Each structure stands twice: as structure tokens, then as C-alpha cells.
Automatic annotation (TrEMBL):
Source organism of the structure: Periweissella ghanensis
Pfam families: PseudoU_synth_2, S4
Gene: rluB
Domain RNA-binding S4: 3-60
EC number(s) stated in the UniProt entry for this protein: 5.4.99.-
Name of the protein in its database record: Pseudouridine synthase
Domain of life: Bacteria
Length: 251
């Protein structure tokens, strides 16, 4: 993807964009061996840029994707056990991307994939309180008092969880007279196996878990294994602290 020369120089850490423009205008910059004094000239990723004979390493293009993670994939870039990773699903993405946070091996749902470290740090830091909405299929029927514990926060491994929002969606009883309940739960932390541990704490094992949304990004239009590139306005909203903008639920 072509980008303006001064912007590429600034992203590579050569100088500020304004200073880079001065270097271009005064003939200090070459592109593929040719002096380039045209401000706004667009360079390609493979172009060779030099400033006073010193090569400029173009910064990797920042990319952003929303993946509908299926079961059977680990949320890492590489797995020492040789299991399939979520990165394997992004078959036509050339950049080296990483998952923002993790979903368990058997958990499905919304997972952001990017190479933007600053955005990853923001989205995963509890103090920014980015909502993550899950649908949990649990054994039995949680009572209001039990769910109230999750709404107030419970102690897991010596540390209190932040208050969660919960809502019972439906209950079903199968032919073996086993009852399960679908519960929508919203949290903004990302502890290991957190949702499963929260429900286990109140006596209801999770037998199925899907993350429906991450901030305002939901699974609408995606099937397990599908992914899409985030739109410019979505990326800007995430970067500007608007990850929790209200969107219509599609649970």
C-alpha cells in the first residue's frame, strides 16, 4: 500500500513529519537511487529510501482484523505443542499479527488481531474497562442471588473481580432431564479462564462459551473461522477511547 514519503520517514523514526518534509525539499532524500524533492510523493513498501545515503527501514503497515475464533485453535501466534493457532486462520494476511488477549481452546467468538502494540496494550488493560460480552451455557439454573454475587464481584485466587453485568437468556431441559441456561455476562477484565471460574464459583459449570463482542465489535456477518479487516472509523474509535460505544446487540 502506497503512502506519502514524509509519513513513511516519520513512522520509521527518521524525524518528525515536518522535519522529514524539510529533508525532502532540500534534496537529502532518495527513492530507488533518485533524489526526491516532491512533497507528498507516494512510496511503495518495496521502495528503497535513503537519507544522506543511510537506508530507511520502512515500518510495517499496521493492520487490524476481527476474527470469529472457532473451537480447536489456541490464541497465540505459535504453539509449542504444535496445535493450530488463530494466526493460521488469517490465510491472506502478510503482516505478522497477534491476538488481543486470549480465548480458551474450546471457546469461540470475537477476537481482534493486529500488529499495533499500543492498541493491544490499551484494549487489554483493565483500567480502560473495555466491555467484553459473552454467552455462557451453564449447567443448571443460576438464581438471582447467585448472579448477584457476580454483579458485585467475587474473590478469585485472592483477588476480587470487577462487577459484571448478567442476564439470563433462556433455559432448556434435554431428554435426559438435564437443564442448562444461557447467560449473557459482560466483563472488562481478561484473567485466565475468568468467566468459567466465575460461574464455577457460584456452582454452575460452563459447558459452552462464546464471546459475542469486544467493545462495539460484534460477530455480525461472520461465521466461525471468518475474519474481516476493521474499517478506518472503527480503528479510530478504538484508538480514541471509544471502544464501548453502544451498538445494537446481535446475540
Amino acid at each position: 500500500m502506497a503512502d506519502r514519503l514524509q509519513k513513511v520517514m516519520a513512522q520509521a523514526g527518521v524525524a518528525s513529519r515536518r522535519k522529514s518534509e524539510e529533508l525532502i525539499a532540500t534534496g537529502h532524500v532518495t527513492v530507488n537511487g533518485q533524489v526526491m524533492t516532491e512533497l507528498g510523493y507516494k512510496v511503495q513498501p518495496k521502495d528503497k529510501i535513503e537519507v544522506d545515503g543511510m537506508p530507511v527501514q520502512q515500518a510495517e503497515k499496521l493492520v487490524y482484523y476481527l476474527l470469529y475464533k472457532p473451537r480447536g485453535f489456541v490464541s497465540t501466534a505459535k504453539d509449542e505443542k504444535g496445535r493450530r493457532t488463530v494466526v493460521d486462520l488469517l490465510t491472506d494476511v502478510d503482516e505478522r499479527v497477534y491476538p488481543v488477549g486470549r480465548l480458551d481452546f474450546d471457546t469461540t467468538g470475537a477476537l481482534i488481531m493486529t500488529n499495533d502494540g499500543d492498541l493491544m496494550n490499551y484494549l487489554t488493560h483493565p483500567k480502560y474497562e473495555v466491555d467484553k460480552v459473552y454467552t455462557a451455557k451453564v449447567e443448571g439454573i443460576p438464581t438471582n442471588d447467585e448472579l448477584m454475587q457476580l454483579r458485585h464481584g467475587i474473590k478469585l485466587e485472592g483477588k476480587m473481580t470487577k462487577p459484571a453485568r448478567t442476564k439470563i437468556l433462556n433455559t432448556k431441559t434435554n431428554e435426559n432431564k438435564k437443564t442448562t441456561t444461557l447467560v449473557q455476562i459482560t466483563i472488562h477484565e481478561g484473567r485466565n479462564h475468568q468467566v468459567k471460574k466465575m460461574f464455577k464459583h457460584i456452582g454452575h459449570e460452563v459447558v459452552g462459551l462464546r464471546r459475542e463482542s469486544y467493545g462495539f465489535l460484534d460477530l455480525h456477518g461472520l461465521q466461525p473461522g471468518d475474519y474481516r479487516e476493521l474499517r478506518f472509523e472503527e480503528v479510530e474509535a478504538l484508538k480514541n477511547g471509544k471502544a464501548n460505544l453502544k451498538v445494537q446487540g446481535r446475540l
